[in-house]
Amino acid sequence: MSNDPTPLRKIARQATSAIAHLGDEPEDDDPLLAFAPFLHTAPRRNSITPELQRRFVATLAATGIVKVAAKRIGKSLEALYKLRARPGAEGFAAAWDAALERGAARLEDMAMERAMLGTRTPIVSGGEILGHWDKPDNALLRFLLAHRLPARYGAQARAIGPGHPVWEELAAQARAEVAEIKRTLQDEVAARAIALQTFRRRRLWRQRQAAGAHAGDITDAWEAEDAEGKPQLPAWDDAAVRRARTILAEMEADPPF
């Protein structure tokens, strides 16, 4: 098995958590790699050379994970920590700390992006996936805001309650966002339900036609059919039906069952 932690999977989400957060390593001319490495007076075959020290720091900056960086250069954590503590390794130790800060900052940015833009989450009804939406992580967002902007969102700010202008402003924004998400989800669920019902009616209609049976009794609340008796979407002119028309075409092209 290779010691290289670079992801090999085609889809990023298939990778493990350590690999999924692998970022770009700094360029060779990055100031982070311009540190004075520890120089062995009598280097041995298994010594952690200046080149390996710089590779370790570069990987650490990209991942924020010491264990992954150690594995990349094929050295143990014990050996690296021993080297870090030796006199003359001050430059290596400082670069190590700076790389950790850079990696942590990148992971924090990724967490903020996930908290605000959301995680892809399925919309399920009756055991069927009707669609997906990007679900924000409000708990993570509050934590990150408290860490980055403690004056506004830290412990003291959390003492703000109902009636305070800041509280009311944020509450109004939250209510508006929730209402918009709810409306969007309701429209999508309604459209998919209409399309799915019409698709099922058409499927039954085709089966009966193939068997030579009369298909005129395939009805529902809207009982919409064409001249040949083929079930159609309802004639309502609203957003749900317009969206259902697109969904139904997709179902006809690629039947879900």
Describe the structure.
With 257 residues, the chain is mainly α. The protein folds into 2 domains: 12-117, no CATH class; 160-253. The protein is 54% helix and 6% strand. It is built from 9 helices and 2 strands, in the order H-H-H-H-H-E-E-H-H-H-H. The protein has helices at residues 17-20, 50-63, 66-73, 77-85, 90-117, 138-148, 150-153, 165-210, 239-253; strands at 119-125, 128-135. It has a two-stranded antiparallel ribbon. Strand 1 and strand 2 form a beta hairpin. The chain is elongated, with a radius of gyration of 29 Å. The model is unreliable at 1-20 (pLDDT under 50).
Question: Which descriptors would you attach to this protein?
Answer:
2 domains, 257 residues, 54% helix, 9 helices, two-stranded antiparallel ribbon, mainly alpha, 2 strands
Number of helical segments with 4 or more residues: 9
Biggest sheet architecture: 2 strands, antiparallel
Overall tally of domains? 2
Low-confidence blocks of residues: 1-20
Classify the helix fraction into a percent range. Answer: 40-55%
Radius of gyration: 29 Å
Strand content: 5-15%
Summarize this, please?
With 257 residues, the chain is mainly alpha-helical. Helix 2 runs parallel beside helix 5, helix 5 crosses helix 6 and helix 8 packs across helix 9.
List the helices and strands and how they pair.
Elements: H1 17-20, H2 50-63, H3 66-73, H4 77-85, H5 90-117, E1 119-125, E2 128-135, H6 138-148, H7 150-153, H8 165-210, H9 239-253
Antiparallel strand pairs: 1-2
Helix pairs in contact: 2-3, 2-5, 5-6, 8-9
